Amino acid sequence: MNQSWHEEKHFSNRNNWLRASVLGANDGLISTASLLMGLAAAEPNHQTLLITGIAALVSGAVSMAAGEYVSVSSQRDTEAADLRKELDSLTRYPEIELAELTDIYRQRGLNQTLAQQVAEALTEHNALEAHAREEIGITEVSKANPLQAAMASAFSFACGALLPVLLSLLSSTVWLMSTLAVTTVIGLGILGCISAHLGGAPKRRAVIRIIILGALALAFTSMIGRIIGITI
Known about the structure:
By secondary structure, the chain is mostly helical. The protein has helices at residues 15-41, 46-92, 94-107, 112-136, 146-170, 173-199, 203-228.
């Protein structure tokens, strides 16, 4: 729990879905815009651009969802295995585990007597929770949630990819590359600002970082498209 009696706001409880959402939106915008810029550099027809953009949006959202679900499920399985090991140790060697917990609190600055008292009180309250938090670093806030991560990633990818797809629909092929470049950079800046705000992080650094990386990706793919020069 990250609640407190005063009005200080904490953002760690957002980590599970915020990471997936930011990654999905950034990936959706950058990858789709980069793909369309690379394709536009080869001068295909307008229909090809639109179909490619829609295919990239759908396949990317599904891929992101599947990837996040598998990845976070693996993390959850690892956490569950660690908790089973800890529960087994607590059942078989309670004295050793109590001494281990006491030593953790002693290393954090408590004297031996107080560390012992705290360890005993927490063990009596919920031994597995105390050891999971202090030894493994697993809390209710940090626990992996595969479905939440998958849904957040898929939805945010689709939202990010929607902008370049709409541009490919509304903009002429002649102006598409420059339009994509400008709007993508602006979109990345907005995403960086939003993600920093939701996470309580400095906005300027987040915006600069994402704009630079996004611009490099756009430049690289457009260069590859021009070099290859494929006519579809």
